[in-house]
Amino acid sequence: MPEQDNLRIVREGWDAWNAHDVDGALKVLDEKHVWETDTLPAPVVGRDGYRQAMQMYLTAFPDLRFSIDQLLSSGDYAVTRYTATGTHRGDLMGIAPTNRRAETHGCTIAEIKNGKIIRSWIYWDTGHLLRQLGIMPAS
Predict the structure, then answer these.
(1) Is residue 51 in a domain?
(2) Interval 1-52: pLDDT, tens
């Protein structure tokens, strides 16, 4: 697929996250999509798993928003560098709401085949997020 198409597909996914449109986010994913991140104990496989993970983050941060700092494509891969902001108002993997606003940075690598994202690797600064929420010490 042309790299411009890959960038459009990835951008649609981010737009869906920002609209809190779970079904919209699922539309750009392959049905066997694998989502890997160090913040979860195991890869999230398939659209149903992705739906649950996305809903968890949207419940924890009902005003969650991603600003795209950089979006690059090379072959079947697109890389997004972003800034995420939100207010912790719901449970986050057992962490009770702190009502604190947080900003963190991350990077997602998406592999795209046949017009769908088949695999995503997510890297983000969870330590910085947890310090802002008061869960980890500041130093």
Answers:
(1) yes
(2) 588 999 999 999 999 999 999 999 999 999 999 999 988 889 999 999 999 9
Q: Does residue 78 form part of some domain?
A: yes
Question: What sign for the dihedral angle of Cα 43, 48, 50, 55?
Answer: negative
Claim: this prediction has a pTM higher than 0.90: yes
Backbone phi, psi, residue 125, to 5°: -85, 80
Q: Is 139 domain-assigned? A: no
**In the chain, how many domains are there?**
1
For 79-121, write each residue's pLDDT tens digit: 999 999 999 999 999 999 999 999 999 999 999 999 999 999 9
The H-or-E segment that residue 106 falls in is strand 101-113
Cα(81)–Cα(37) distance, integer angstroms: 15
E strand or H helix that includes residue 86: strand 77-87
Residue with tokens 């207010």: 87
Q: Establish if 73 belongs to a structural domain.
A: yes
> What is the span of the domain harbouring residue 112?
3-132
